[in-house]
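QA checklist item 7 of 12: single-chain prediction sanity check.
[x] sequence parsed
[x] length recorded as 166
[x] structure emitted
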Amino acid sequence: MALEAEHSLPPKDAIMKFTELCEGYKKKVLGIDHLNGSHEKMLVINMIEKYVSVVTGLARVKWMNEKDYRGVEALMVEASEFVETAIERINNPLNGREPLVNKLLQVIKINQAHSVYMQDGRHMEAIALYESIVAENVGLGGNGILACEPIILANLCVVYILSKQN
């Protein structure tokens, strides 16, 4: 449904459809009262995954059609806050987070970093976001800097150069 909205509707209508879908997933996640078993937790994680997919679709439409980088940044901040709130309900502090949830949060953070990168005069903020993403990736899996997506490293290098930190 989200893919249809992005490709078959005019941008304004796609934005409305994506926003409607985002709100629907939020209501579903927050409407689940009892998270007793792993089935309910997986249901919530599944809805969070769909929400992140829809919110990134919305961001893509705003990015590509409106060049609304501040709007994309605000959307990613809101998405991050929602996902953090949602996962607080399902995580056992002793067991840590589900790996999928960490990946979804990273997708949001990457999109936020890209949106800040595109805004003039915000290079230091972009550096901080990209550096934290690199640090997270380097700490995972033991592949070092190779664990990072090339675009993250490329954009980090560019903002270093633009801010004269090369």
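[x] summary fact logged: The chain has a mean pLDDT of 85.
[ ] second reviewer sign-off
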